[in-house]
Amino acid sequence: MIISNYAETTPRPTGLTLRPFEAIWWLQG
Question: What highest taxon heads this organism's lineage (predicted)?
């Protein structure tokens, strides 16, 4: 949940770093 919230609060540049995590969250979501 922290990762999801983090990606939501952080801009795109930072989101790129969390791409792997974002992909997993998207798949799980």
Answer: Bacteria
